[in-house]
Specification:
The protein is an all-alpha fold. It has eleven helices and no strands. It has helices spanning about 1-5, 25-50, 55-80, 95-115, 130-140, 140-165, 180-200, 205-230, 235-245, 250-275, 285-305. Mean pLDDT is about 85; it is low at about 1-20.
């Protein structure tokens, strides 16, 4: 299992080398982004399923399938033993994050497809044999509710996994934190809420997602503070790892692009928008999404500079 899941950068444990490129941060971002959309689409469906204006919930599964496939492609490009990836699915190791991730990703696709099939605007609903299955799923409210709940649960597992994947690598003190999974999950939710705010055709949905994202951005600030505090109150190597973000090589990117441009400024803009003091603008959600992507790059790259 370990030989298979090593990337081409198999000298990962050397703390003096910065070796991961763009593929892993992009994969982590898209995985968390899709996880956030799965959770929010499930919640929106359960809350607004009887409201015809709730159309964004039916768009998200299509977008999620495309983005997750792009993330999987980025991960595949980074793998060293590409031809043996299928061996991950011949076994399950409860103590291996990669094993958990492989099986979670295998569950995501059918859950998203089921979400598409409860879409009343599904174009192929009259095509045999899809039509029979479509009618079977949509004949029961309980079945549709179950699919929405499945999206929430599997999405939460996917979002948490993106952080657990890094935190399991104990050779990197910056990553070796029990808070990282929560940070990536909240960040993914925030990015998804911002995206829905950006594309939702219904004014009520945009308003709801802007308010939701404000809570998530505030929560993300709290989790980041908790993450850094846990590092600063730990061993010397963990304090040094936190310093890389706070005042070291990645401090300008962390403070400038993640904290200020990615969280604080859009939080202010969206707070003014939901209180109807300014108009809703695409600038704020775009800043949130960009900040989430930069967060993954900063954490991945800065983590490779930390070591024992």
């Amino acid at each position: 299992m370990e030989e298979l899941t090593h990337t081409r950068h198999n000298h990962l444990i050397d703390p003096n080398l910065t070796i991961w490129g763009w593929e892993i941060p992009v994969y982590l971002f898209l995985g968390g982004f899709v996880a956030g959309m799965m959770i929010l689409s499930g919640v929106i469906y359960l809350r607004r399923r009887n409201q015809p204006g709730a159309t964004v919930v039916f768009i998200l599964p299509y977008i999620s399938l495309i983005l997750l496939s792009l993330g999987m492609l980025a991960l595949f490009i980074d793998l060293e033993h590409k031809l043996y990836t299928w061996r991950l699915y011949l076994t399950f190791k409860p103590l291996s994050p990669m094993s958990w991730g492989a099986w979670i990703l295998l569950l995501v696709y059918p859950v998203l497809i089921l979400k598409i099939l409860i879409n009343p605007f599904f174009l192929f609903r009259d095509v045999a044999p899809i039509s029979k299955f479509y009618k079977f799923l949509n004949a029961s409210a309980d079945r549709k509710n179950f699919i929405a709940y499945a999206n929430i649960v599997i999405g939460a597992m996917l979002g948490a996994y993106t952080g657990i994947l890094l935190s399991a690598l104990g050779a990197r003190p910056l990553w070796n934190s029990g808070i990282l999974w929560l940070l990536f999950l909240v960040s993914g939710l925030s990015g998804a809420a911002a995206f829905i705010h950006l594309i939702a055709p219904d004014k009520g949905e945009r308003e709801m997602m802007a308010k939701t994202d404000n809570y998530l951005l505030a929560g993300e600030l709290f989790v980041i503070a908790f993450f850094l505090t846990s590092l600063l109150s730990s061993s010397a190597v963990h304090i040094q790892a936190a310093t890389i973000l706070l005042s070291g090589a990645y401090a300008p990117s962390f403070w400038g692009f993640v904290i200020i441009a990615g969280i604080i400024i859009p939080l202010i803009i969206q707070s003014l928008a939901v209180s109807h003091k300014v108009k809703h603008t695409p600038i704020a959600p775009l800043m949130v999404i960009a900040g989430g992507l930069i967060l993954r790059f900063v954490i991945v790259y800065a983590g490779q500079l930390s070591g024992y």
